[in-house]
Amino acid sequence: MPEFITHVATIEIPVSSLDKAIPFYKEVIGVEVEFKGERNAMLTFRKKGVPTIFMVETEEIDRISFRNTNNDVEHSIIDFYTADLKGFHEWLNTRGIEAGPLNVHPENGSGGFGFRDPDGNLLSATNVLHKGQ
User: Fold this and answer.
1) Residue 49: other Cβ atoms inside 10 A
2) What is the chain's mean pLDDT, rounded?
3) What is the number of other CB atoms lying within 10 angstroms of the CB of residue 102?
4) CATH classification of 1-62, choosing from 3.30.750.24, 1.20.1600.10, 3.30.390.30, 3.10.180.10?
5) Quick check: 39 and 57 in contact, CB under 8 A?
């Protein structure tokens, strides 16, 4: 089978206001603005192979997350990597950003937690790197 898909190119996120969302993503996630249109914006990490973030300003009220019906846990669909999970969690809390509990495996130190952007989109942070990352 030919290799058509090689990586994730872009993650699309609905927001109610680009003017509120862009500063949050720049400060918290560390992205730069590639371009900003009237109702959309492209944000980038400026690293090879890392997806861009395309924001679309919309009045739609549905936000990104899903509930696992097996255990009733709400999941994000985006996990951002950080080497300093505890430090990032504390940093978010000092800024009043809604962050869930820090879940770290006691034996290997791997884990993560969820946090929300200004529109209530559920995002996650993890210190887990997978093969090829």
Assistant:
1) 11
2) 93
3) 15
4) 3.10.180.10
5) yes
| Confidence band for 3, pLDDT divided at 50, 70 and 90 | confident
| Most distant pair of Cα atoms in the chain: their distance | 50
Beta strands in 10-129 (DSSP E): 10-15, 32-36, 40-44, 52-57, 66-68, 73-75, 79-81, 103-104, 111-116, 122-126
Token pair 């978010």 is found at 92
Give the residue-averaged pLDDT of 111-117. 96
Measure the CA–CA gap between 35 and 3, rounded to whole angstroms. 30
